[in-house]
């Protein structure tokens, strides 16, 4: 019997966390799907909303406390106690952003622009918006709509669709 | 490896149809590959293809962002010119290897 192949046709990606690595995982996966011609929908919820909130999207940080994978330049271990120093989180994050710029990895606003320019869609979670007292105007212009979880699931049907939680 | 006949010449291509030797490329070949992909090349397409080839010749990694910075076309326009998977499609028509970039 011949094995049937079902190519990936649509991805629905959920981002619930607001750290640099979680947001970028979402954005790289989403943009990568758009680049392959895969229908793409991205749903930002809870702290993930930071990535699409105008006032917060340019100050997304990585965790320097309680992050065992964190390294200093030269691959030295990064002591958690060092991470408690004021400004350390911002410093580590800005260093990381510089490295990403070298690889031509876009900034968060630029990524949102790229994803939507290629036909991808960006959504925000209604419940989390209510909780953080956010309005549609507080979000980036690329955000297409504010959805309930039911609305989101309704978009995720069809053969060859995957839901990815980053 | 496979071969294809483009513009009356036998050209070596990969299994996915990318030219093996970027130097064998010509505008005529580009038109023929584009036709296979269901595209008719305009001057704008050709401007993008030339930009991509220049980048490749310099050994730079091709990204969608680089194309949007080229001044030839914005990202939306790039997706319109090469629908679906634009970076791959444009690379194939430009006769350069399959892109290895994630962005």
What would your notes on this structure say?
The complex is a heterodimer of chains A (about 170) and B (about 100). The termini of chain A are far apart. In chain A, helix 1 packs parallel to helix 4 (about 110-115). A five-stranded parallel β-sheet of chain A has the order 6-5-2-1-7. Chain A has a two-stranded antiparallel sheet with strand order 3-4. Chain A contains six helices and seven strands, in the order βαβββαααβαβαβ. By secondary structure, chain A is an alpha/beta fold. Chain A has a domain at about 10-60 and about 105-165: 3-Layer(aba) Sandwich (Hypothetical Protein Ychn, Chain: A). In chain A, strand 3 (about 70) and strand 4 form a beta hairpin. Chain B has about 100 residues and is mostly helical. Chain B has one domain. Chain B is built from five helices and two strands. Chain B has a two-stranded antiparallel ribbon with strand order 1-2. The interface between A and B is medium-sized, with 16 and 19 residues.
């Amino acid at each position: 019997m011949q094995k049937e192949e079902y190519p990936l046709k649509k991805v629905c990606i959920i981002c619930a966390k607001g750290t640099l690595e979680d947001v970028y995982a979402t954005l790289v996966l989403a943009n990568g799907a758009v680049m392959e011609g895969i229908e793409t929908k991205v749903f930002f919820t809870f702290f993930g909303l930071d990535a699409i909130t105008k006032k917060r999207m340019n100050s997304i940080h990585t965790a320097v406390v309680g992050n065992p994978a964190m390294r200093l330049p030269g691959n030295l271990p990064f002591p958690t106690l060092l991470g408690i120093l004021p400004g350390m989180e911002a410093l580590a994050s800005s260093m990381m952003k510089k490295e990403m710029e070298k690889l031509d990895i876009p900034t968060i606003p630029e990524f949102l622009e790229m994803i939507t320019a290629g036909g991808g869609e960006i959504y925000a979670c209604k419940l989390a918006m209510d909780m953080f007292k956010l309005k549609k105007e507080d979000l980036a212009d690329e955000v297409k709509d504010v959805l309930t979880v039911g609305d989101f699931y309704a978009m995720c049907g069809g053969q060859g669709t995957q839901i990815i939680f980053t | 490896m496979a071969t294809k006949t483009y513009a009356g010449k036998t050209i070596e291509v990969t299994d996915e149809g990318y030219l093996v030797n970027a130097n064998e490329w010509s505008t005529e070949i580009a038109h023929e590959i584009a036709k296979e992909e269901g595209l008719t090349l305009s001057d704008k397409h050709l401007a993008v293809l030339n930009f991509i080839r220049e980048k490749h010749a310099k050994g730079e990694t091709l990204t969608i962002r680089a194309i949007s910075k080229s001044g030839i076309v914005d990202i939306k326009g790039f997706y319109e010119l090469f629908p679906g998977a634009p970076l791959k499609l444009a690379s194939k028509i430009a006769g350069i290897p399959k892109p290895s970039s994630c962005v």
